[in-house]
Design brief:
This protein is of the alpha/beta class and 302 residues long. It has eleven helices and 15 strands. It has a single domain, classed as Rossmann fold. It is globular and about 55 Å long.
């Protein structure tokens, strides 16, 4: 019974990746399979949680041959992790796309036996990239107004106007709440095991590949913009607004206006078990708890 279940739901990778089980999208591991994997010491399958505007197209190489830069890997897409007794909708689609808000979710129990990784981006850079995406600034990737793109008009009015609009709202993502909200579950748990950063993505992926015994290959850049240095879009007042609004998130990930200092980050690359127990985020109240550092307010002050 156990062998048949494993054969039906898993395929073994050979060669240098021997020992990993890849799970076809149409199947999920049942409890017996997960218990067997733990007993025999089979490493957890890597699973990529894609936060919008953080280099997911590059990892998946969807604009070239579709051969991912790191493998084996299961792709979770833009899903949001939900827990029983907590809201069941994907927060990045709330009030803008009801279908995806209800379907682009995955339960905590289904990801607990994956090695979940995600990529994060400096918010100062992220906001510029988002503005270009929403406003269709790159002629190769046109955009238009609609329910799934509520910021088209604001982005084309001015970058300053867009950022202030986002910072002033809570009901539509992106908002003044955490941009990288998907690294937490609906119950506030930290669900990732590893974080990469866009500015050092190849190096971070290589580090992760070495740590997990994965295959990694550099590939052509994807969806490259033409906007230049993100810092050119900011005035002093707008810089201060970003710090005031998303200071807790900048502090959590080690970002500031000029770049990233991984030494200052609460969350670095590998997420420890202690951090998974101590770092919490409540979406409704926008409160981040970082264990020994206590609760941070919106400005990132402890």
């Amino acid at each position: 019974m156990l062998c048949r279940d494993l054969l039906e739901t898993m395929a073994i990778c050979n060669g240098s990746l021997d020992g990993y089980f890849t799970i076809p999208l149409m199947f999920e591991m049942n409890a017996v399979s997960r218990f067997f994997m733990r007993v025999v010491g089979i490493p957890a399958m890597p699973a990529y949680l894609h936060i919008p505007k953080t280099g997911g197209t590059y990892i998946g190489q969807s604009e070239s041959d579709g051969k991912r830069v790191i493998y084996p890997v299961k792709t979770l897409g833009h899903k949001y992790v939900i827990e029983p007794g907590f809201p069941q909708n994907n927060v990045i689609y709330l009030n803008r796309d009801h279908h995806r808000a209800t379907t682009q979710v995955i339960t905590l129990s289904k990801i607990q036996h994956y090695f979940v990784f995600a990529t994060v981006r400096n918010l100062f850079d992220w906001l510029v990239s988002y503005a270009g995406h929403a406003g269709g600034w790159n002629k190769n990737y046109p955009a238009s107004p609609g329910p799934d793109n509520p910021d088209y008009e604001a982005a084309n009015k001015s970058f300053d106007y867009l950022v202030r609009s986002i910072a002033d709202r809570e009901d539509v993502w992106p908002s003044r709440k955490l941009i990288h909200s998907q690294i937490f579950s609906s119950g506030g748990r930290l669900v990732v095991d590893w974080l990469n950063r866009t500015h050092s993505l190849d190096g971070d992926l290589g580090r992760m590949a070495d740590y997990k015994g994965l295959a990694f290959r550099r590939r052509p850049p994807q969806r490259v913009g033409v906007r230049g240095d993100y810092r050119e879009f900011y005035t002093d007042d707008l810089i201060e607004l970003v710090y005031q609004t998303w200071g807790q998130e900048l502090h959590l990930l080690g970002f500031d206006f000029d770049g990233c200092s991984i030494d200052r980050a609460t969350l670095k690359w590998q997420i420890t078990d202690e951090q998974k127990h101590s770092v919490k985020y409540d979406w409704a109240s926008n409160q981040l708890v970082t264990g020994k550092q206590g609760t941070t307010d919106e400005k990132g002050h402890g």
